[in-house]
Amino acid sequence: EELDPNYCIYFEDEFKVVPSQKFSKYFSFLDGPKARDPVEKERELDATVFWRFALCGALCCSTAHAVLVPLDVVKTKMQASPSKYPSFVSATRRIVDEGGPSALLLGAGPTVLGYLVYGAVSFGLTEYFKRVFLDLAGPEYATFYPFAILLLASMSAAFFGAVAVTPFEALRIRSVTSSENGAGEEEDAAEEASRR
Q1: Closest to 124 measured CA to CA, from 43, 54, 39, 46
Q2: Is the pTM of this model over 0.70?
Protein backbone atom coordinates (compact mmCIF):
# COMPACT_ATOMS: atom_id res chain seq x y z
CA GLU A 1 0.00 0.00 0.00
CA GLU A 2 1.40 3.39 -0.98
CA LEU A 3 1.35 6.08 1.67
CA ASP A 4 0.01 9.56 1.10
CA PRO A 5 3.10 11.72 0.34
CA ASN A 6 1.39 14.76 1.89
CA TYR A 7 1.08 13.06 5.24
CA CYS A 8 3.70 10.35 5.62
CA ILE A 9 7.16 10.27 7.02
CA TYR A 10 9.53 8.44 4.73
CA PHE A 11 13.00 7.00 4.98
CA GLU A 12 15.73 7.55 2.37
CA ASP A 13 19.19 7.35 3.97
CA GLU A 14 17.99 9.77 6.63
CA PHE A 15 14.78 10.75 8.38
CA LYS A 16 12.70 13.44 6.76
CA VAL A 17 9.25 14.79 7.42
CA VAL A 18 7.14 15.77 4.44
CA PRO A 19 6.03 19.36 5.08
CA SER A 20 2.33 19.28 5.74
CA GLN A 21 -0.28 21.33 7.53
CA LYS A 22 -1.38 18.08 9.19
CA PHE A 23 1.79 18.11 11.31
CA SER A 24 1.50 21.76 12.33
CA LYS A 25 -0.37 20.93 15.54
CA TYR A 26 2.72 19.07 16.81
CA PHE A 27 5.30 21.79 16.08
CA SER A 28 5.16 25.49 16.88
CA PHE A 29 6.66 28.19 14.65
CA LEU A 30 8.39 29.36 17.83
CA ASP A 31 10.57 26.24 17.63
CA GLY A 32 12.50 27.86 14.77
CA PRO A 33 13.32 26.80 11.23
CA LYS A 34 14.24 23.24 12.25
CA ALA A 35 10.62 22.69 13.31
CA ARG A 36 9.69 22.50 9.64
CA ASP A 37 11.80 19.32 9.40
CA PRO A 38 11.59 18.14 13.02
CA VAL A 39 12.95 14.65 12.55
CA GLU A 40 16.27 14.21 10.89
CA LYS A 41 18.66 11.39 11.46
CA GLU A 42 21.39 12.63 13.77
CA ARG A 43 24.87 12.51 12.35
CA GLU A 44 26.94 9.48 13.13
CA LEU A 45 29.16 9.91 16.17
CA ASP A 46 32.53 8.27 16.46
CA ALA A 47 33.96 6.73 19.62
CA THR A 48 35.82 9.90 20.62
CA VAL A 49 32.51 11.77 20.99
CA PHE A 50 31.08 9.05 23.24
CA TRP A 51 34.30 9.14 25.30
CA ARG A 52 33.80 12.88 25.73
CA PHE A 53 30.21 12.29 26.89
CA ALA A 54 31.54 9.70 29.34
CA LEU A 55 34.26 12.04 30.62
CA CYS A 56 31.77 14.88 31.17
CA GLY A 57 29.40 12.55 33.00
CA ALA A 58 32.21 11.14 35.12
CA LEU A 59 33.46 14.56 36.18
CA CYS A 60 29.99 15.95 36.92
CA CYS A 61 28.74 12.93 38.87
CA SER A 62 31.88 12.45 40.94
CA THR A 63 32.10 16.16 41.78
CA ALA A 64 28.46 16.36 42.85
CA HIS A 65 28.74 13.27 45.04
CA ALA A 66 32.09 14.35 46.50
CA VAL A 67 30.46 17.54 47.77
CA LEU A 68 27.73 15.48 49.46
CA VAL A 69 30.03 12.98 51.21
CA PRO A 70 29.57 14.53 54.72
CA LEU A 71 25.79 14.29 54.41
CA ASP A 72 26.12 10.72 53.19
CA VAL A 73 28.33 9.80 56.16
CA VAL A 74 25.81 11.18 58.66
CA LYS A 75 22.89 9.49 56.87
CA THR A 76 24.68 6.13 56.75
CA LYS A 77 25.64 6.27 60.42
CA MET A 78 22.07 7.20 61.38
CA GLN A 79 20.79 4.18 59.43
CA ALA A 80 23.40 1.85 60.91
CA SER A 81 22.92 2.96 64.54
CA PRO A 82 19.63 4.80 64.99
CA SER A 83 19.80 4.68 68.79
CA LYS A 84 23.29 6.20 68.84
CA TYR A 85 22.46 8.85 66.20
CA PRO A 86 18.80 9.84 66.71
CA SER A 87 18.79 13.12 64.74
CA PHE A 88 20.83 14.69 61.97
CA VAL A 89 22.26 17.55 64.07
CA SER A 90 23.14 15.38 67.07
CA ALA A 91 24.62 12.73 64.76
CA THR A 92 26.82 15.31 63.03
CA ARG A 93 28.02 16.69 66.38
CA ARG A 94 28.77 13.23 67.75
CA ILE A 95 30.68 12.16 64.62
CA VAL A 96 32.82 15.32 64.74
CA ASP A 97 33.35 14.98 68.51
CA GLU A 98 34.41 11.33 68.26
CA GLY A 99 36.51 11.43 65.09
CA GLY A 100 37.18 15.06 64.30
CA PRO A 101 36.04 16.90 61.17
CA SER A 102 37.82 14.38 58.94
CA ALA A 103 35.36 11.71 60.14
CA LEU A 104 32.76 13.39 57.91
CA LEU A 105 34.87 12.34 54.91
CA LEU A 106 34.81 8.59 55.60
CA GLY A 107 34.24 6.68 52.39
CA ALA A 108 35.10 9.63 50.15
CA GLY A 109 37.44 7.53 48.00
CA PRO A 110 34.93 4.83 47.06
CA THR A 111 32.23 7.48 46.59
CA VAL A 112 34.27 9.55 44.14
CA LEU A 113 35.54 6.51 42.25
CA GLY A 114 32.12 4.87 42.14
CA TYR A 115 30.35 7.92 40.80
CA LEU A 116 33.17 8.56 38.35
CA VAL A 117 32.31 5.16 36.88
CA TYR A 118 28.54 5.71 37.21
CA GLY A 119 28.66 9.08 35.44
CA ALA A 120 30.83 7.74 32.63
CA VAL A 121 28.61 4.73 32.04
CA SER A 122 25.25 6.45 32.35
CA PHE A 123 26.06 9.60 30.35
CA GLY A 124 27.97 7.77 27.62
CA LEU A 125 25.38 5.03 27.21
CA THR A 126 22.40 7.41 27.25
CA GLU A 127 23.60 9.06 24.04
CA TYR A 128 24.48 5.71 22.50
CA PHE A 129 21.16 4.05 23.41
CA LYS A 130 19.20 7.10 22.27
CA ARG A 131 20.61 6.74 18.76
CA VAL A 132 20.12 2.97 18.72
CA PHE A 133 16.50 3.23 19.89
CA LEU A 134 15.70 6.02 17.42
CA ASP A 135 17.00 3.83 14.60
CA LEU A 136 15.03 0.83 15.89
CA ALA A 137 11.84 2.86 16.27
CA GLY A 138 11.97 4.15 12.73
CA PRO A 139 11.03 7.59 11.52
CA GLU A 140 7.33 7.54 12.35
CA TYR A 141 7.69 6.51 16.00
CA ALA A 142 10.81 8.64 16.39
CA THR A 143 8.74 11.65 15.35
CA PHE A 144 5.82 11.16 17.69
CA TYR A 145 7.53 9.54 20.69
CA PRO A 146 10.91 11.24 21.15
CA PHE A 147 10.45 11.66 24.91
CA ALA A 148 9.56 8.00 25.43
CA ILE A 149 12.59 6.92 23.41
CA LEU A 150 14.88 9.22 25.39
CA LEU A 151 13.37 7.96 28.64
CA LEU A 152 13.96 4.34 27.60
CA ALA A 153 17.56 5.18 26.65
CA SER A 154 18.14 6.92 30.00
CA MET A 155 16.62 4.06 31.97
CA SER A 156 18.76 1.51 30.13
CA ALA A 157 21.92 3.50 30.72
CA ALA A 158 21.05 4.09 34.38
CA PHE A 159 20.63 0.32 34.84
CA PHE A 160 24.17 -0.33 33.64
CA GLY A 161 25.45 2.61 35.69
CA ALA A 162 23.80 1.22 38.83
CA VAL A 163 25.39 -2.17 38.25
CA ALA A 164 28.79 -0.49 37.86
CA VAL A 165 28.50 1.65 41.03
CA THR A 166 27.18 -1.11 43.33
CA PRO A 167 30.58 -2.52 44.43
CA PHE A 168 31.82 0.99 45.23
CA GLU A 169 28.68 1.72 47.27
CA ALA A 170 29.16 -1.50 49.24
CA LEU A 171 32.75 -0.49 49.96
CA ARG A 172 31.66 3.01 51.01
CA ILE A 173 29.03 1.67 53.41
CA ARG A 174 31.51 -0.77 54.95
CA SER A 175 34.12 1.94 55.44
CA VAL A 176 31.60 4.27 57.09
CA THR A 177 29.97 1.65 59.32
CA SER A 178 33.03 -0.47 60.18
CA SER A 179 33.75 1.63 63.26
CA GLU A 180 30.06 1.46 64.18
CA ASN A 181 30.01 -2.34 64.12
CA GLY A 182 33.01 -2.59 66.45
CA ALA A 183 31.75 0.11 68.79
CA GLY A 184 28.25 -1.33 68.76
CA GLU A 185 29.51 -4.77 69.72
CA GLU A 186 31.55 -3.32 72.58
CA GLU A 187 28.54 -1.35 73.86
CA ASP A 188 26.32 -4.45 73.63
CA ALA A 189 28.93 -6.50 75.52
CA ALA A 190 29.16 -3.81 78.22
CA GLU A 191 25.36 -3.69 78.58
CA GLU A 192 25.22 -7.49 78.77
CA ALA A 193 27.92 -7.53 81.48
CA SER A 194 26.14 -4.84 83.51
CA ARG A 195 22.92 -6.89 83.49
CA ARG A 196 24.63 -9.89 85.08
Answers
A1: 54
A2: no
